[in-house]
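User: I'm designing a mutation panel for Multifunctional fusion protein and want to avoid disrupting the core. Could you give me a predicted structure to guide residue selection? Please restate the sequence first so the numbering is unambiguous.

Assistant: Good idea. Sequence first, for numbering, then the predicted structure tokens:
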Amino acid sequence: MVAVALIGLSGSGKSTLGPLLAQRLGVPHIDVDAAIERREARSIRAIFDTDGEAHFRALERDRTRESLAGDAVVSLGGGAPMTPAVADALAGHPVVWLQADPATAARRVGDDPNRPLLSGSDAVARLEAMLAERGATYALLATLAVDTADADPAVLVETIAAHAESFRAATPASPEHVGGSAGDVGRAGRSAGVRAAVVAHGYRRVLRPVLFRARGGDPERIHEDMIAGLARLGDTPGVRAAVGALTRTASDPVEVAGITFGGRVGLAAGMDKDGRAALAWQHLGFAFAELGTVTARPQPGNPRPRMFRAPASGGLVNRMGFNNGGAAALAARLASVGIVRNSSRENGPAGIPLGISIGKSKDTALDDAVGDYLFSLRAVAPHADYVAINVSSPNTPGLRSLQDGGALAELLGALVAETRTLDAARPVPVFVKIAPDLSWSQVDEVLATATDAGASGIIATNTTLSRDGLAPADAALAHEAGGLSGAPLTQRARAVVRHVAAHTDLPVMGSGGVMTPDDAVALLDAGASLVQLYTGFVYAGPALIAGINARR
Ligand SMILES: Cc1cc2nc3c(=O)[nH]c(=O)nc-3n(C[C@H](O)[C@H](O)[C@H](O)COP(=O)(O)O)c2cc1C
Ligand SMILES: Nc1ncnc2c1ncn2[C@@H]1O[C@H](COP(=O)(O)OP(=O)(O)OP(=O)(O)O)[C@@H](O)[C@H]1O
Ligand SMILES: O=C(O)C1=C[C@@H](O)[C@@H](O)[C@H](O)C1
Ligand SMILES: [Mg+2]
């Protein structure tokens, strides 16, 4: 039988549950930390102190890979899954994420001198920081997540044993099948459903509360941690295989504006402004990702804090102000990983179509906006499957006035003409992203202008200036400047999508308040060809993507 792996932070119970589970399954138990100590004839603390963490990680990698090759229950070290070669080796195994909130884990192990990463100061804070850094990786690798705080080990062992047995029954033996054609969606789809439920549980119960509290509760710093973590994941081949069950769904491909999308759900602009995680989004199950918004010149954005959670409302308020490294830097980063449009391989190493959103630099006068956008277009077009023209951020003074007839006609006319100059045979499609706060007559004017200018589609909508739908507990956020997203925007975005779809032949990408699979289905039913997520991804985690894919 294939080895069962136990992962989780220190104090989650890997060494405690491992032997019990092994006994229950009738296989040996290997505690990798203990195996390292035996082989080295010294403690982990001594290895860290004498040879440093990098050396320990190399020993850990080798012992872990060796242990997983046998028929055993393997208790990994807490940090082991962060090593790419270990993540690789976990593919195809039942991987059980043992979860314990940091306070419980610290109570269990906080004063153990042989845990070098925990000893010293505040163990709870260290465990929280570790979970923030490692949680996304654990969640992606895990095939089961169980909460061990206040749980009887005997009951936990039965839960895990049942999972290990059903995992073996549900998982095709050969990796080729895991790679999957439409033919094995039935079996794979079922296991994807199980996995999605598990990931949702792990995310909402353990990871999200920690993430929302970590880094002093500053959402932007968590966001930065997550992007950094995802950027690392994108470089980890094992994760591709390990999350295969999430990404492989019954979702039908759809062609929009000449681009083939493997599914309906994509990442909305603003999450990965500088394209740092461009290689990772495919692994979360997204069928496309919109990078940016970038501007012609790099700019810092507004002073912090500038991103706020409205937890009672399922919303976010942000006034980021297009903080970004500039269009040229994004283009260079994408080029450096081989993301080039029109290259022979299908969508390149990103694995999915990439849109790139461009906006206006704050210190460029509105009258000079066209030149600013043109500069960005020229920089990013060689790397984009489509370009999104952001004229709807509420956070650059005056930007939304570019949605007005004359200004929009001039801007889109110039940009579409430039796409034809850049690539006459296959001009990059141009999408226009609009605000949810336009009147119907303003929307109609945008549609007419976009059609006349030769735009390829509409993205509806950006964040709203309205504060309707904020729960009383979030009332203080009504006074923060910025755009509101998430659940308070759901109905309005849906209405705008319905209106747009009814009044134009241009395809529509729906964005705004997709918090559940039902919301996505409603947006598609309202006429969107594709949907995008930002805030729903923050609140529901990666399971939302699989949940939507399972519905289409
Ligand atoms: C923190 C944050 C930053 C954003 N940055 C951008 C951006 O740079 N460009 C853009 O077009 N939209 C941006 N958006 C808007 C989202 O792409 C999306 O259209 C909007 O949030 C509504 O979708 P949601 O309810 O799923 O979040 C941002 C949203 C948030 C919350
Ligand atoms: N389900 C549980 N209920 C109560 N106590 C538990 C439970 N699981 C583990 N413990 C206790 O918590 C302590 C730490 O658990 P354990 O050594 O299994 O953690 P670990 O995940 O192996 O951590 P590390 O990565 O640091 O090796 C042990 O003293 C153990 O008795
Ligand atoms: O979380 C970690 O990085 C570690 C956890 C322990 O299991 C040991 O592997 C070591 O202390 C490192
Ligand atoms: Mg242990």
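For picking mutation sites, this is relevant: Residues 4-215 form a domain with the Rossmann fold fold (CATH 3.40.50.300). The pocket of flavin mononucleotide (ligand 1) is lined by residues 268-270, 273, 293, 307, 316, 318, 320, 357, 390, 393, 433, 462-463, 485-486, 489, 511-514, 533-536 (CB under 6 Å).
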